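Note to self: keep these together.
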Amino acid sequence: MTPPPEWPVIDPLGAVLAAFFTLSIVSLLAWMLWVPKPVARTVARARRSIGGVNRILVPLEWGVESDRAVELACRLGRDQHADIYLACVIEIPRTRVLNSPLHEGEAERIRETLRYAEQIVKLNHLRAVTFVERSREMSEGILRLADRVQPDLIVIGVPALYSTVKGLLGVLTLEEILRRAPCEVLLSKKPG
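Structure:
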Protein backbone atom coordinates (compact mmCIF):
# COMPACT_ATOMS: atom_id res chain seq x y z
CA MET A 1 0.00 0.00 0.00
CA THR A 2 1.19 3.45 -0.85
CA PRO A 3 1.22 6.16 1.76
CA PRO A 4 -1.38 8.96 1.33
CA PRO A 5 -0.07 12.06 -0.42
CA GLU A 6 0.88 14.92 1.83
CA TRP A 7 -1.04 18.14 1.53
CA PRO A 8 1.10 21.04 0.44
CA VAL A 9 1.80 23.66 3.07
CA ILE A 10 0.16 27.00 2.23
CA ASP A 11 2.51 29.93 2.35
CA PRO A 12 0.80 32.85 4.21
CA LEU A 13 2.42 35.47 1.96
CA GLY A 14 1.25 33.64 -1.14
CA ALA A 15 -2.29 33.47 0.23
CA VAL A 16 -2.31 37.22 0.94
CA LEU A 17 -0.98 38.01 -2.55
CA ALA A 18 -3.55 35.72 -4.19
CA ALA A 19 -6.37 37.37 -2.21
CA PHE A 20 -5.09 40.85 -3.09
CA PHE A 21 -4.80 39.93 -6.78
CA THR A 22 -8.32 38.46 -6.84
CA LEU A 23 -9.78 41.50 -5.08
CA SER A 24 -7.96 43.84 -7.49
CA ILE A 25 -9.29 42.03 -10.57
CA VAL A 26 -12.84 41.98 -9.19
CA SER A 27 -12.66 45.71 -8.32
CA LEU A 28 -11.30 46.59 -11.76
CA LEU A 29 -14.02 44.62 -13.53
CA ALA A 30 -16.72 46.19 -11.34
CA TRP A 31 -15.38 49.67 -12.13
CA MET A 32 -15.19 48.93 -15.86
CA LEU A 33 -18.70 47.50 -16.03
CA TRP A 34 -20.34 50.15 -13.82
CA VAL A 35 -22.69 52.32 -15.86
CA PRO A 36 -23.55 55.75 -14.41
CA LYS A 37 -27.14 56.84 -14.11
CA PRO A 38 -28.36 58.55 -17.27
CA VAL A 39 -28.76 62.33 -17.12
CA ALA A 40 -30.53 64.72 -19.42
CA ARG A 41 -28.47 66.09 -22.30
CA THR A 42 -28.90 69.69 -21.08
CA VAL A 43 -27.61 68.72 -17.63
CA ALA A 44 -24.56 67.02 -19.12
CA ARG A 45 -23.92 70.03 -21.40
CA ALA A 46 -24.13 72.47 -18.47
CA ARG A 47 -21.73 70.38 -16.39
CA ARG A 48 -19.29 70.06 -19.28
CA SER A 49 -19.39 73.81 -20.02
CA ILE A 50 -18.36 74.70 -16.46
CA GLY A 51 -15.63 72.07 -16.64
CA GLY A 52 -14.12 74.00 -19.54
CA VAL A 53 -13.43 77.12 -17.46
CA ASN A 54 -9.63 77.25 -17.27
CA ARG A 55 -8.98 81.01 -17.41
CA ILE A 56 -10.96 83.46 -15.32
CA LEU A 57 -10.53 87.24 -15.53
CA VAL A 58 -11.49 89.30 -12.47
CA PRO A 59 -11.40 93.11 -12.81
CA LEU A 60 -10.59 94.55 -9.41
CA GLU A 61 -11.66 97.65 -7.59
CA TRP A 62 -11.00 98.60 -3.97
CA GLY A 63 -13.59 97.01 -1.73
CA VAL A 64 -15.45 93.93 -0.62
CA GLU A 65 -17.17 93.36 -3.98
CA SER A 66 -13.85 92.60 -5.69
CA ASP A 67 -12.75 90.29 -2.89
CA ARG A 68 -16.01 88.36 -3.16
CA ALA A 69 -15.63 88.19 -6.95
CA VAL A 70 -12.10 86.76 -6.59
CA GLU A 71 -13.32 84.15 -4.09
CA LEU A 72 -16.20 83.21 -6.38
CA ALA A 73 -13.83 82.91 -9.35
CA CYS A 74 -11.56 80.66 -7.30
CA ARG A 75 -14.43 78.41 -6.28
CA LEU A 76 -15.63 78.16 -9.88
CA GLY A 77 -12.14 77.33 -11.12
CA ARG A 78 -11.00 75.09 -8.28
CA ASP A 79 -11.87 71.72 -9.85
CA GLN A 80 -10.21 72.66 -13.14
CA HIS A 81 -7.14 74.25 -11.49
CA ALA A 82 -7.97 77.40 -13.44
CA ASP A 83 -5.65 80.37 -13.78
CA ILE A 84 -7.11 83.50 -12.18
CA TYR A 85 -6.23 86.73 -13.99
CA LEU A 86 -6.49 89.70 -11.63
CA ALA A 87 -6.70 93.08 -13.34
CA CYS A 88 -6.63 96.62 -11.98
CA VAL A 89 -7.79 98.96 -14.72
CA ILE A 90 -6.81 102.57 -14.19
CA GLU A 91 -9.07 105.06 -15.91
CA ILE A 92 -6.94 107.99 -17.13
CA PRO A 93 -8.87 111.17 -18.06
CA ARG A 94 -8.48 112.43 -21.61
CA THR A 95 -6.88 115.61 -20.24
CA ARG A 96 -3.82 113.61 -19.12
CA VAL A 97 -1.27 111.58 -21.06
CA LEU A 98 -2.07 107.85 -20.89
CA ASN A 99 1.26 106.93 -19.29
CA SER A 100 1.35 109.89 -16.89
CA PRO A 101 2.37 109.16 -13.30
CA LEU A 102 -0.34 108.18 -10.85
CA HIS A 103 -1.48 110.41 -8.01
CA GLU A 104 0.00 109.89 -4.55
CA GLY A 105 -1.41 106.86 -2.85
CA GLU A 106 -3.09 105.53 -5.98
CA ALA A 107 -0.18 103.26 -6.90
CA GLU A 108 -0.03 101.95 -3.32
CA ARG A 109 -3.79 101.30 -3.33
CA ILE A 110 -3.47 99.33 -6.57
CA ARG A 111 -0.58 97.24 -5.18
CA GLU A 112 -2.57 96.56 -2.01
CA THR A 113 -5.68 95.57 -3.99
CA LEU A 114 -3.64 93.14 -6.09
CA ARG A 115 -1.87 91.78 -3.00
CA TYR A 116 -5.17 91.02 -1.22
CA ALA A 117 -6.60 89.40 -4.34
CA GLU A 118 -3.46 87.27 -4.80
CA GLN A 119 -3.73 86.07 -1.20
CA ILE A 120 -7.30 84.89 -1.84
CA VAL A 121 -6.16 83.00 -4.94
CA LYS A 122 -3.22 81.41 -3.10
CA LEU A 123 -5.51 80.31 -0.25
CA ASN A 124 -7.48 78.40 -2.90
CA HIS A 125 -4.26 76.82 -4.25
CA LEU A 126 -4.63 78.35 -7.71
CA ARG A 127 -2.28 80.41 -9.86
CA ALA A 128 -2.76 84.17 -9.97
CA VAL A 129 -1.63 86.36 -12.86
CA THR A 130 -1.82 90.12 -12.27
CA PHE A 131 -2.27 93.00 -14.70
CA VAL A 132 -2.36 96.75 -14.35
CA GLU A 133 -3.99 98.30 -17.40
CA ARG A 134 -4.31 102.00 -18.23
CA SER A 135 -7.25 103.05 -20.32
CA ARG A 136 -9.41 106.05 -21.17
CA GLU A 137 -12.56 104.11 -20.31
CA MET A 138 -12.94 101.28 -17.83
CA SER A 139 -14.90 99.05 -20.18
CA GLU A 140 -12.32 99.46 -22.97
CA GLY A 141 -9.50 98.45 -20.62
CA ILE A 142 -11.34 95.36 -19.41
CA LEU A 143 -12.30 94.31 -22.94
CA ARG A 144 -8.73 94.87 -24.19
CA LEU A 145 -7.45 92.62 -21.40
CA ALA A 146 -10.10 90.03 -22.26
CA ASP A 147 -8.88 90.01 -25.86
CA ARG A 148 -5.29 89.58 -24.70
CA VAL A 149 -5.94 86.92 -22.03
CA GLN A 150 -8.73 85.04 -23.86
CA PRO A 151 -10.57 84.06 -20.65
CA ASP A 152 -13.35 81.50 -20.49
CA LEU A 153 -15.16 83.62 -17.90
CA ILE A 154 -15.12 87.18 -16.55
CA VAL A 155 -16.29 87.61 -12.94
CA ILE A 156 -17.21 91.13 -11.84
CA GLY A 157 -18.15 92.10 -8.29
CA VAL A 158 -21.15 94.43 -8.17
CA PRO A 159 -22.35 96.26 -5.04
CA ALA A 160 -25.99 96.00 -3.99
CA LEU A 161 -26.84 99.46 -5.39
CA TYR A 162 -24.79 99.27 -8.57
CA SER A 163 -27.00 101.69 -10.50
CA THR A 164 -25.64 104.62 -8.50
CA VAL A 165 -21.95 103.65 -8.62
CA LYS A 166 -19.48 105.35 -10.93
CA GLY A 167 -16.17 103.99 -12.17
CA LEU A 168 -15.55 100.33 -12.76
CA LEU A 169 -19.01 99.24 -11.75
CA GLY A 170 -21.00 101.95 -13.47
CA VAL A 171 -24.08 100.90 -15.40
CA LEU A 172 -22.67 101.95 -18.77
CA THR A 173 -19.45 100.06 -18.11
CA LEU A 174 -21.32 96.89 -17.20
CA GLU A 175 -23.61 97.16 -20.21
CA GLU A 176 -20.63 97.63 -22.52
CA ILE A 177 -18.80 94.62 -21.06
CA LEU A 178 -21.90 92.43 -21.18
CA ARG A 179 -22.55 93.42 -24.78
CA ARG A 180 -19.00 93.08 -26.16
CA ALA A 181 -17.26 90.49 -23.98
CA PRO A 182 -15.72 87.58 -25.92
CA CYS A 183 -16.76 85.10 -23.24
CA GLU A 184 -19.28 84.44 -20.51
CA VAL A 185 -19.66 87.22 -17.89
CA LEU A 186 -20.75 86.55 -14.33
CA LEU A 187 -21.88 89.41 -12.09
CA SER A 188 -21.47 88.78 -8.37
CA LYS A 189 -23.92 91.10 -6.65
CA LYS A 190 -23.50 91.55 -2.91
CA PRO A 191 -26.78 90.97 -1.09
CA GLY A 192 -28.31 93.88 0.72
